[in-house]
Amino acid sequence: MLPAEEAAATAALTVSEVGVHFGGVAALTDVSLRVLPGTVTGLIGPNGAGKTTLFNVISGLQSPDRGSVHLFDNDVTTMKPHRRARLGLARTFQRLELFGSLTAGENVQVGLESAVKWWEWRRLGRSFPRKRRAALPDDAGVGDRESGGPGSVAVATSDRLLEGVGLAGLGRQQASAMSTGLARMVELARALAIAPKLLLLDEPGSGLDEAESQALADLLVRLAAGGMAVLLVEHDMELVMGICDYIYVLDFGDIIAAGTPEEIRSDPMVQAAYLGVMPEGGTLVGHGVPGREAVRAGEAELQRIAAASGRDGPPGGAPGFEPGGGR
Questions:
Q1: From CA 19, how far away is CA 212, in angstroms rounded?
Q2: In this predicted structure, what is the pLDDT of residue 6?
Q3: Does residue 306 have a pLDDT over 50?
Q4: On the chain, which terminus has fewer CB atoms closer than 10 Å, C or N?
Q5: pTM
Q6: Segment 62-115, tens digit of pLDDT
Q7: Do 58 and 229 meet the contact criterion of CB atoms below 8 Å apart?
């Protein structure tokens, strides 16, 4: 459980008893969770558990059949995605959603433009001298490069954001020519362009090597230390266990466990199904955390145990649930 003082804090995100059906299939069943400012919260589970569907509900791309979503004190359950973004919600996607024909810097500038109204750019333009400098050969396509103009403000800001995610000097590289790992960092920089209060990351570690994963972990810890709330979907258990303050385990649309990394490691169902019992040949890495290949292999065991468990809902005491509450 969260400490009492954290449990009483205002959550950046509160999801309450959300349900989603696609035809006769229940993708989410009365899912509830909370994400506090200044924390990294993990959401783990096998493929098809409903993690991306939950992200779509939170960000406004999928309407729930029941339940509610709150950003801080705002009920955003029926709110359009762009309005949620203006309240401070940003996300990345499991499948890369960059503009391949644009450069890395231009992709980030798209995020900046969504955060700054057109009339504010005009006001910025009046505040700077309109002196042109000679165009450089590699300036093509970067945008308004007038010295001191609003375009140069956007370029400088996008460069700083790219530098912050470890991509210094790559602002003019074509997005379609970048590796998956680098492209995911561009997508993260674009999400950070709106200065979000809540950041949803859908498998950001996919396609990253060990060094890039460590750099991502360090960045997310720094963002949380600055007060941002981060909700992370990830299959890399080493990454999740290393940086998350609290973890929810989702399976077949249900929250089957919730707690600190230590509590998740020791939870009998999660330990047997997802973290501890591995098929022959599966390996664990550091502190009882399975390697990526072992996690993938263990998903079959999770499916078997989940089907036979007859469980109903999340454990008592998980954030967002009243003790003795039930569904």
A1: 35
A2: 52
A3: no
A4: C
A5: 0.73
A6: 999 999 999 999 999 999 999 999 999 999 998 888 888 899 999 999 888 776
A7: no
**Rounded-to-10 torsion of CA 145, 146, 149, 150:** -30
Q: Which two tokens stand for residue 63?
A: 């309407």
| SS3 assignment for the chain | CCCHHHHCCCCCEEEEEEEEEECCEEEEEEEEEEECCCCEEEEECCCCCCHHHHHHHHHCCCCCCEEEEEECCEECCCCCHHHHHHCCEEECCCCCCCCCCCEHHHHHHHHHHHHCCHHHHHHHHHHCCCECCCCCHHHCCCCCCCECCHHHHHHHHHHHHHHHCCCCCCCCCEHHHCCHHHHHHHHHHHHHCCCCCEEEEECCCCCCCHHHHHHHHHHHHHHHHCCCEEEEECCCHHHHHHHCCEEEEEECCEEEEEECHHHHHHCHHHHHHHHCCCCCCCCEECCCEECHHHHHHHHHHHHHHHHHHCCCCCCCCCCCCCCCCCC
| Cβ partners under 8 Å of residue 122, min gap 6 | none
Output 225 or 140, whichever has higher pLDDT. 225
Lowest mean pLDDT among 76-80, 115-119, 221-225, 252-256: 115-119
How much is the pLDDT for 324?
34
Place of tokens 């899912």: 31
Domains of the chain: which residue ranges? Answer: 4-88+196-261, 104-175
Report, as an integer, the average pLDDT of 1-7: 47
Backbone dihedral angles phi then psi of residue 137, each to the nearest 5 degrees: -60, -35
In angstroms, rounded to a whole number, what is the distance separating the alpha carbons of residues 158 and 266?
43
List residues bridging with 28 in a β-sheet.
Answer: 20
Task: Give the separation between CA 55 and CA 232, rounded to whole angstroms.
Answer: 10
Q: Residue 9 pairs with which residues in a beta bridge?
A: none
Q: Tell me the pLDDT tens digit for each residue of 155-196.
A: 888 899 999 998 999 999 999 999 888 999 999 999 999 899
